[in-house]
Model the fold of this input.
Amino acid sequence: MSAYRCPDPIHGETVVPMKANNDRVYECPGMHKYWRREEGGAVFLVNLITQQRFEAAEIPGAGAVSDAPDRPRLNFMVDVPSPAEGVDFNALTLTVLQWKLFSRIDGKANLEEVRLLAGLNPQDTERLVHELVDAGLVEIRRRGGR
Done:
């Protein structure tokens, strides 16, 4: 099954992979849903709500959203995420899930507590934390350490 980049303009130039819910409907972590449609040999993604049509951008070699192999694994009971200093909240553009997680990060609760407050599964939480760290919005420290 092919993996496609979410075409929603909110993602900008960021490549956001989508998971296939079945052989025709694809959804990104930001809850954007598309119907996969073929016309004349070309593949298009049609937004299920707005009916806006986008040319499908396949992500070669990608299947379901996966962990990057070079990323250190997070320890949910020890790692404490905290918001980076100087974040301009007015300039943020986050997906729904990123915001759901980011809004619960206070610099005191460990990742497991944040995950439970956000109501997310461990795999999505780890992926979202790495995205927020890459964006410079979150820093991770070990509880008891600096």
About this structure: The chain has two domains: 9-55, 79-142.
